[in-house]
Amino acid sequence: MIPVDKQVLYQYIDACELVKETEEEIRRIKKQRKRIEQDIVKGSMNDFPYAAKNFHVQGLAYTVIKDPRSLEVQEKILEERKAAAEAIKLQVEAWLVTIPPRMQRIIRYKIFDGLTWAQVATRMGRKATEASVKMEYQRFMDAA
Fold it and tell me: Directed axis angle between helix 117-124 and helix 130-143, to 10°?
């Protein structure tokens, strides 16, 4: 069984939310970077017969941000933050599959869903009481 600290277990919920929030920020930055300005410029050839030509010009608009590299730095930082949060998620999920199914359910109900011990006992069924489920959880975590 993979050892998991209780604090990491409680951080799982925050890690899940942090991944979602970070992905949204990354999308926002990419949207800023991908704003393309386009225009058509008229000109003529340098040599005779001086034929008129239209030139299509496009480029990224950085009107909001003075330094375009700052977007790249922000995006890199966000990617690192997302990777760290995903590592916590994976650590907890890998640990969860190694423990008994009953304890998986108790942990999911109590920690991830935030239910009270009475609600956990009701969901567990089989004549489980608030005190028995709480004691089972505490014994398991003390042993882990």
Answer: 100
